[in-house]
Amino acid sequence: MSYDPPRPAGRLLLTPEDREAPERVRRLRLLGVGRHPDPALDAFADRLADVARTPYAMVNFLVENGQVFAGLHAPRMPPAGAGTTPGFARFQPRDHGFCPHVAARRRALALEDVRDYPRFAGNPVVDTYGIRSYLGAPLIDSTGTVLGAVSAADVTPRPWGRAGLETIKATAAELMRRIERSAGDGLPL
């Protein structure tokens, strides 16, 4: 882990080092994903939001200078309890959100209330979008490279439990199979 300089509000956030970046970028290019929004990945995020019953769901790829939400389900206007920022940016720096931590951990992460964790409480998405709970799992390809994460987030604290963890892990594995199959067949997702 590396320490980033303090944020404007005096917050100190830990952002994981990205040692897999060169291999990840190569794999993302080879698989043809991770550069732009993809309607098929948006539809996948829509289904995940429905299953998880959350206002936010993402398919996130970690790229050279940050992260791209190639699949996104987000409300047009912030839900009650959220921050005041409408929409959700498709590109964000690595220190925004929780997916870079999922990638570094190489395993699922469930945060019932992000404010209970000092490392995450000061994350910009907490204030900007009002994110209070998070559930994510890494997208690990057949070479063992972590490409990004699938995740669901809510503006209220919630217990995800074992069922939530199993669902997000199965969702990540399903999507990774689809991505590799479509790249191998040369077909869209």
Characterization of this structure:
- The structure is a single chain.
- This protein has 189 residues and is an alpha+beta fold.
- It has helices at residues 21-31, 39-52, 99-105, 118-121, 124-129, 161-185, and strands spanning 2-3, 14-15, 56-63, 66-73, 91-92, 109-111, 133-140, 146-154.
- A six-stranded antiparallel beta sheet has the order 5-4-3-8-7-6, with helices on both faces.
Distance between the termini: 34 Å
Kindly state the percentage of residues in helix: 25-40%
Helices and strands, in order, run as EEHHEEEHEHHEEH
Radius of gyration: 15 Å
> Biggest β-sheet: count, sense, barrel?
6 strands, antiparallel
> What is the 3D shape?
globular
> What is the number of beta strands?
8
User: What would you call the structural class?
Assistant: alpha+beta
Strand content: 15-25%
Strand order of the largest sheet: 5-4-3-8-7-6
Provide a short characterization of the protein structure.
It is built from six helices and eight strands.
Which short descriptors sum up this protein?
disordered N terminus; 189 residues; 8 strands; six-stranded antiparallel beta sheet; alpha+beta; two-stranded antiparallel ribbon; 6 helices
